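Provenance

Sequences were taken from public entries as deposited. Structures were produced by running a predictor on each sequence independently, with no templates supplied. The record for tRNA 5-hydroxyuridine methyltransferase from Candidatus Weimeria bifida is shown for reference.
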Amino acid sequence: MIFEDYDRFQDFLRSYPFKLPDELYQIKKKALSDHVPVIRDDTQRFMAFLMKLISPERILEIGTAVGFSALLMANFDDDLKELVTIEDYEPRIREARANFRRFDAPVTFLAGDAADILENLDGKFDFVFIDAAKGQYPEYLRLVGPLLADKAVITADNILQDGRILEPKEALERRDRTIHKRIRAYLSDIMTDESFVSTVLPVGDGLAVSAYRRKNG
Ligand SMILES: C[S@@+](CC[C@H](N)C(=O)[O-])C[C@H]1O[C@@H](n2cnc3c(N)ncnc32)[C@H](O)[C@@H]1O
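Predicted structure for tRNA 5-hydroxyuridine methyltransferase:
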């Protein structure tokens, strides 16, 4: 819970219709019943909003799971030419492949460790969604740097860690401390690098949004 009454706010928001196409809704429903982590309801709405606002041509997603967020972005992006998405967990790779086959979306699905793949990836992306290993966010940012178009947006999910990011690290269980440290490092990077204007929105589990402009020279 991010702030008091957050659950009431979510119910309130859900009372306004945000309709997914039925096939996409079925993927979400199955993911939830299989306990596959997918972007939360208000994040879905916000990502769809961003797609309509920006209409990126080339999207890079780190963390496919079973393809739900990738297909959601593809569905709401009117100018999409290619969406590249990366996943390394075999059971989800199989399911994502099957899901992508059912949709007529320009998805390039890359199976393997995200850091290894990013190291060797070519091309320029005008929208990046980071949603894989939380402890790797600073590394993903470093690897994504050379892949950014002159003008781009980076979004990163689960920044608030259900509120834990606000706590001093001493108050956390040992196993949560590395993620805490790395997400704080990611925030520090996007907030201090002058190529970005960034903020964190209390959407879902916290979404960091960074607008990027390549500096001349
Ligand atoms: C939160 S889920 C992604 C959810 C998806 N974006 C959605 O909303 O539909 C994170 C995914 O990242 C994958 N992942 C974690 N570490 C990874 C890595 N090093 N390389 C590639 N994928 C990774 C996990 O297996 C998991 O399926």
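DSSP finds eight helices and seven strands in the chain.
The chain has a mean pLDDT of 95.
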